[in-house]
Amino acid sequence: MSTKESSLSTKIHQIFRRYKVAILQSCSPIPVLMVGLMLLFNLFVISNISHDSWSAQRKSHLPTHKTGISQHQTWKPNMQDDKDIKTNVFSAGRANKAPSFFTKINNLVLVEGLSVENQDRHIENRVNAQSIVYNNGKMARKHRIIGPNYYDYDDPDLEQGAGNRQGEIESSSKGQAWLKCKENPNICPQEFQKWYKSMTPLCGVNFIAFDRNFALCQNITLNRQKAIGQKGGESITEVLNQKEAVEFYKYKFGFYHVRNCQKTPKYVFTKYHGKGHLKDWIESVSIKKNHPNPQLTTVNQNFTIAVTRYEYVNWYHSMTDFYNAFLMMKFFRKQPDEISVLLIDAHPQGNLDEVWATLFGNSKRLSETDRLVTYREMIWNPMGYNSMMNQHVRKTIPLIDEFREFFLKRYRVSTSKKLNCDKLDILFIWRHDYVAHPRNPSGSILRKIYNEDEIISAVKSEFPAFNVQGIQMDQLKLKDQLELVAKTDILVGMHGAGLTHTLFLPKHGGLIEIFPQYSNVMGHFRSLSNWRGIHYAFWKNSDVTLEHRNHFTEIPTAVVIKQIQDMAKRIATNSC
Questions:
Q1: Which of 4, 144, 355, 470 sits 20 to 30 Å CA-CA off 332?
Q2: Could you tell me which of 303, 306, 299 has the C-alpha nearest to residue 366?
Q3: In the prediction, which pLDDT does 47 show?
Q4: What gap in Å lies between CA 197 and CA 344, rounded to an integer?
Q5: How far is CA 362 from CA 74, 308, 333, 533, 561, in A?
Q6: Where, by residue number, does the polypeptide cross the bilayer (predicted)?
Q7: Which alpha helices (H) appear in 277-420, and where do they start and end?
Q8: Which of 464, 465, 498 is nearest to 484 (CA)?
Q9: Closest by alpha carbon to 344, among 330, 356, 359, 336?
Q10: C-alpha atoms less than 13 angstroms from C-alpha of 377 in its C-beta half-sphere
Q11: Per-10-residue mean pLDDT for the chain, 576 residues long?
Q12: What does the alpha-carbon distance between residue 114 and residue 61 come to, in Å, rounded to a whole number?
């Protein structure tokens, strides 16, 4: 305790002793009232003096910049193109633990709002909602992306700021403060930079929306009883012919709850052909100051990604959800096992349910959670339909090769294959009828090949040194599928979700896509091939006589052989 604080404590005791004697010596209410007023006045004066002392003490705990700038010196950020920067952030390191009035999120702590106009101001005792970034109490590691990080909204002494809207890459080399994302796209993809710039704080900093596609929430409470719908997780046979609408929840107000909001958050999330659960989620957010039934609430400390799936048993559309979650993991700099996935839908059991728990730490359905759960950090995952993987006009999408590596490694599948141009591995993917969801109890599907055996026999005869096989993928476990595709040089199949396996072909590989006469040529897997940098070719039937009943298409063997010959030459030219 400082000398000033010690003397203040002595004065308080003296005042109480003096007024206690006066009260005991008088039975009249007037002296008692006078004594009470005098006591309140003295306490008011003392509290102001004490606050000044406390403020000075807090100021003494403010960090010192690595270059040696003291707490009372003017700090000028070293940034390029200052005119383009609306919000500045500076890094500070110190050996001791970060002050208790900061909350650490994602190994960083952010107090927001330092403007360009105020960048030359001194760092004041209450920080004045200026921007400070701690990196776990130390200088940031070289080239780490600084993402959204927030102070604790429960701290009454910390004002809510306007929010950090500027994304940068931090570099500790030679004391340089920042590098722009665009200068090193391998570290910070262009899309990530766009997301940083789109940061829109709602409810102070307890709810941050990005790019109209996803959001990060801190200390958000979810009330399961306010989601109206099926339980989910049933076997398909139990719910045959079930309408799809009942597999999506209807949300009552208060399904989500965020404390200490000044006003109800308003934000327009992007829809897809009228679909969009994020709109329903934000409209269900309540903002009462007090926590609803804190005694009955479970606290989840994990970094949680909340996902609503649409075509939940479709390999392609599920992959857009997996890819979105992977990008969230990279954007917020998390490790897979740190992440929990919360499935907020009521779909029955599906053959891809287990993928979530394999890719990330664990997964759980909403119906499996406690009634009230507060999530310390929750991501509202982008809608699968709005995934960059579903935007086929894009020339590139971020981290696609890294996503392949991540996926295969989580399944313990080798990510490399040595090419032998004299003995290529050729894999045909067959499409057969099967029951995948309640709306198709017969299991009938489109785009099937009529003459599978004939094709396999002809290709083996034409290319005796090649390893040729045909597989109905849904008959295999996913790990076995991945191992098979990761060793395949040429993948051949009808347009369909199974061709999403193009993602896992070796870098030298090629895809041959086939379309029936009644189908349009679609760009899903052409784009995926282009993004991966692998070879692509397609053939579309134009002869109606080759179309048979029940959506079977006869493929001339000569066409298949010619396509494989051309693809083998392209692979040999580029990789052998």
A1: 355
A2: 306
A3: 52
A4: 28
A5: 47, 16, 18, 32, 45
A6: 21-45
A7: 277-283, 315-331, 353-359, 400-410
A8: 498
A9: 356
A10: 20
A11: 52 52 49 59 52 44 36 33 31 32 34 30 28 33 32 29 28 28 64 90 88 95 96 95 96 92 91 92 88 78 97 98 98 95 98 98 97 96 98 97 98 96 98 94 96 99 98 96 99 99 98 98 98 98 98 99 98 94
A12: 19
Burial class (CB in 10 A: 0-12, 13-18, 19+), 283: middle
Structure tokens at 397: 């999408």
Question: Do residues 483 and 413 make contact, with C-beta atoms less than 8 angstroms apart?
Answer: yes
Report the distance separating Cα 302 and Cα 360, nearest Å.
12
Tokens 């849904």 belong to which residue? 474
Longest dimension (CA), the chain: 117
Q: What is the pLDDT of residue 145?
A: 30
First to last CA, the chain: 76
- The answer to whether 417 and 506 have CB atoms below 8 angstroms apart is yes
Whether residue 542 contacts residue 513, with contact meaning beta carbons closer than 8 Å, is answered with: no
Does residue 16 sit in helix, strand or coil? helix
**300 Cβ contact partners less than 8 Å away, ≥ 6 residues apart:** 340, 373, 374, 375, 376
pLDDT value at position 275?
87
Residue with tokens 């499996």: 368
SS3 429: strand
> pTM above the 0.70 mark?
yes
Cα angle 531-537-539, degrees, rounded to a multiple of 5? 135
β-pair partners for 364: 342
Q: How many CA within 13 A on the CB side of residue 503?
A: 25
User: Nearest 5°: CA angle at 446, between 544 and 247?
Assistant: 155
Give the residue carrying structure tokens 């190994």: 107
- According to the model, what pLDDT value does residue 297 have? 86
According to DSSP, the β-strands at 552-553 and 448-449 are parallel
Crossing angle (nearest 10°) for helices 524-532 and 400-410: 90
Q: In this predicted model, what pLDDT tens digit does every residue of 120-168 receive, in sequence order? A: 232 222 222 223 333 333 333 333 333 333 323 232 332 232 232 222 2
CA distance 401 to 384: 19
Contact yes or no for 112/131 (Cβ under 8 A): yes
